[in-house]
Amino acid sequence: MGMKINLELSDADLEHFRNRLQKAREAAGQISEAAILKAAEDLLADVREGDTPEFIKNLLEKISDMVNMVRDTAWALPEENRQRVLSALTYFSDPEDIIPDDIPGLGYLDDAIMVELLVRELKHEIQAYQDFCTFRANEANRRGLKLDEDMSRADWLKARRKQLHERIRNRRRRDSSRRRSRGRSAFSLW
After folding, report:
1. Which segment of 58-62, 89-93, 129-133, 186-190 scores lowest on mean pLDDT?
2. Number of domains forming the structure of the chain
3. Is residue 160 part of a domain?
4. Average pLDDT of the chain, as a whole number
5. How far apart are CA 154 and CA 147, in angstroms?
């Protein structure tokens, strides 16, 4: 029988994670996009192959959406959002984790917490990308196309991508104005 455990991070805890992310960004200043994506994928591979607790594996799997949305040429993530996602992923290229990854059972806990914070911060980008992938798969199926075909030229795909990118901008603006009216949010990367 499973058990649900909730963690509550204080403002000081959130500030600590914000500072660690900023430190990772500064350290990654000269790291290429390819290196950032590879570091995130390597982390996922280590977690999948290792004896990592299931709850941590499940949280860290969310990294794959962030990597995929940057790599997916059909998605054509706008540059501002692309940089936002890459900036978030820099944490996983920093060799100086809060908790060293080689500690059995707990080494990836800080990474899992950071993923959860990043997923919340990038919720509009991730949700739009997931919707795009679902739409693309459904349309490909409906039209009798294979997903590995170059579907990025199709008008229907471009129209949906444009619609979802606009949705990201609108939701981010709405969230930003809400934050301003209530003061700074609990956790923000920017």
Report:
1. 186-190
2. 1
3. yes
4. 85
5. 12
Instruction: Report whether 172 contacts 127 (CB < 8 A).
Output: no
The token pair at 11 is 């403002």
Distances (CA, A) of 30 to 26, 43, 109: 9, 20, 27
Would you say residue 72 lies in a domain? yes
Would 61 be classed as within a structural domain? yes
Is 141 contained in some domain? yes
Name the residue range of residue 137's domain. 13-182
Residue given tokens 């290429």 in the structure block = 32
Residue whose structure tokens are 């990043």:
118
> Cβ–Cβ contacts within 10 Å for residue 109, how many?
20
pTM of the model: 0.78
User: pLDDT, tens digit, for every residue of 30-75?
Assistant: 889 999 999 999 999 999 998 888 888 999 999 999 999 999 988 9
3-state secondary structure string across the chain:
CCCCCCCCCCHHHHHHHHHHHHHHHHHCCCCCHHHHHHHHHHHHHHHHHCCCCHHHHHHHCCHHHHHHHHHCCCCCCCHHHHHHHHHHHHHHHCCCCCCCCCCCCCCCHHHHHHHHHHHHHCHHHHHHHHHHHHHHHHHHHHHCCCCCCCCCCCHHHHHHHHHHHHHHHHHHHHHHHHHHHHCCCCCCCC
Tokens of 158: 């471009």
